């Protein structure tokens, strides 16, 4: 090697760390710009939703995510948004969104007090839930056949598309419902108890169906692989609840008694268990977030831990990670991709189909079980609240290639409308119900 070559190598050796540092700093700055914009826009729309639209926080968060995508700001300022949400930083952004979703599903599992929701009116809760999921699923399944025939080539598998579309029409967002009732101060009413219980059953059935559909797609309809995966998933869930759950709860109780708080060590181990469970379910052919949800359900009985986790970690998940997930969804949703009046008419029909079947099933079942018209209407409207859970399901369908972009966009619009419609109607119906009850009590 001559002196010239040696000097070039020396310069390159000296410059490489600087170049790496510069590249790292650019990625950090890019990511910081993204996060600053997401958090500011989210807080603005949460304020607008609460102040002017009388919506819950989650409605504003969902709307902020859509606004940041190609549907509005991306359409008005495409070059600016292209620079901010560039392809170079997209992998990191997607990674943060998915980690946030895993933590969020863990929190949803922690709040999933299924047993307590069924203590009162078990038969009514079960019947309302079954009617509220069967009618939209059956109607959605057959309607999806007509939608599938209108899709451009290459089309997804027809059966899988029908099942996923039907599932999207059937889901109910129990976390959002809980927040709506709590914010309205109506979480202890009989109607709220029945609705939350029915929504809990809906979510269980929905996640089971999602697991089956995901495994079918991953197995590529290979019967042996599908059966092996389903058996492995059942074995894993049984091991989790029969073996791991009591051990984890005993360990948690010991740690909390010893420290009288949620220590850094305990948090670290919980996150390790959480990520291990997510990794296992991912390898078994269903999504990682199912694993985190399973751990959450397994640990929800320790209410001291739940309260401490929500106090220390929960706020970060809802304030930081949740808006990132909604933005992630918004960046994939392009309302402008609906071409012409035909696709907008199709979108309208999808929304009407989703609203009418979900409302109709829950309302009819409630009336047959002796609930009043107003209470039945409240239950039907509440069961139509899809929001967060719907967006999670839709993103999974999009990632699997089951939902084409235009259908994905239609269903996102349906999820947003169902959430925005629900809150003011529930508030009005529940307020009038409480007012009439007070008048009746005064007359007595």
List the helices and strands and how they pair.
Elements: H1 3-51, H2 57-68, H3 73-76, H4 78-84, H5 90-110, H6 114-117, H7 122-149, H8 158-170, H9 174-183, H10 190-219, H11 223-259, H12 264-283, H13 288-299, H14 303-332, H15 340-368, H16 373-383, H17 387-400, H18 405-443
Helix pairs in contact: 1-2, 1-14, 2-14, 5-13, 5-14, 7-8, 7-10, 7-15, 8-10, 9-10, 10-11, 10-16, 10-17, 11-13, 12-13, 15-16, 15-18, 16-18, 17-18
Distance between the termini: 103 Å
Order of secondary-structure elements: HHHHHHHHHHHHHHHHHH
Q: Mean pLDDT, nearest integer? A: 84
Kindly report the CATH topology: Na+/H+ antiporter like fold
Derived structural class = mainly alpha
DSSP strand content: under 5%
Number of strands: 0
Helix segment tally: 18
CATH domain class: Mainly Alpha
Domain count: the total is 1
CATH architecture: Up-down Bundle
Poorly predicted residue ranges:
1-13, 438-444
Question: What characteristic shape results from the CA principal axes?
Answer: globular
Largest sheet: none
How much helicity do the residues have?
over 70%
Radius of gyration: 24 Å
């Amino acid at each position: 090697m001559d002196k010239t070559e040696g000097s070039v190598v020396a310069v390159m050796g000296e410059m490489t760390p600087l170049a790496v540092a510069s590249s790292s700093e650019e990625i950090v700055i890019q990511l910081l710009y993204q996060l600053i914009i997401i958090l500011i826009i989210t807080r603005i729309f949460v304020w607008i939703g609460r102040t002017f639209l009388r919506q819950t926080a989650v409605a504003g968060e969902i709307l902020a995510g859509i606004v940041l995508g190609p549907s509005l700001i991306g359409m008005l300022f495409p070059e600016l948004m292209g620079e901010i949400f560039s392809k170079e930083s997209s992998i990191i952004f997607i990674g943060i969104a998915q980690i946030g979703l895993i933590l969020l599903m863990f929190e949803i599992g922690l709040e999933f007090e299924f047993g307590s929701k069924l203590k009162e009116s078990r038969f009514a809760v079960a019947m309302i839930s079954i009617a509220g999921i069967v009618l939209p699923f059956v109607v959605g399944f057959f309607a999806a056949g007509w939608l599938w025939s209108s899709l451009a080539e290459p089309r997804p598998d027809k059966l899988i598309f029908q099942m996923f579309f039907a599932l999207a029409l059937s889901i109910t967002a129990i976390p959002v419902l809980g927040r709506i009732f709590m914010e309205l101060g109506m979480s202890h009413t009989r109607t709220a108890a029945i609705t939350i219980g029915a929504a809990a059953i809906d979510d269980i059935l929905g996640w089971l169906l999602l697991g089956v559909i995901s495994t079918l797609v991953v197995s590529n309809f290979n019967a042996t692989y599908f059966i092996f995966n389903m058996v492995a998933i059942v074995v894993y869930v049984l091991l989790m609840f029969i073996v791991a759950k009591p051990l984890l709860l005993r360990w948690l109780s010991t740690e909390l008694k010893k420290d009288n708080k949620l220590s850094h060590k305990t948090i670290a181990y919980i996150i390790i268990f959480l990520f291990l469970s997510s990794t296992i379910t991912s390898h078994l052919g269903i999504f990682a977030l199912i694993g985190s949800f399973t751990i959450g359900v397994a640990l929800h009985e320790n209410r001291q831990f739940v309260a401490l986790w929500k106090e220390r970690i929960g706020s970060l998940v809802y304030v930081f990670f949740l808006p990132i997930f909604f933005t992630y969804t918004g960046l994939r949703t392009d309302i402008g991709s609906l071409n012409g009046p035909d696709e907008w008419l199709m979108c309208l029909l999808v929304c009407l189909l989703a609203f009418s079947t979900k409302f109709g099933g829950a309302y009819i079942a409630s009336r047959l079980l002796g609930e009043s018209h107003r209470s039945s209407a409240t239950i039907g409207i509440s069961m139509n609240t899809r929001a967060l859970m719907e967006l999670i399901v839709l993103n999974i369908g999009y990632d699997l290639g089951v939902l084409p972009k235009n259908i994905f966009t239609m269903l996102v619009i349906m999820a947003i409308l169902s959430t925005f419609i629900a809150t003011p109607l529930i508030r009005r119906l529940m307020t009038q119900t409480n007012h009439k009850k007070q008048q009746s009590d005064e007359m007595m």
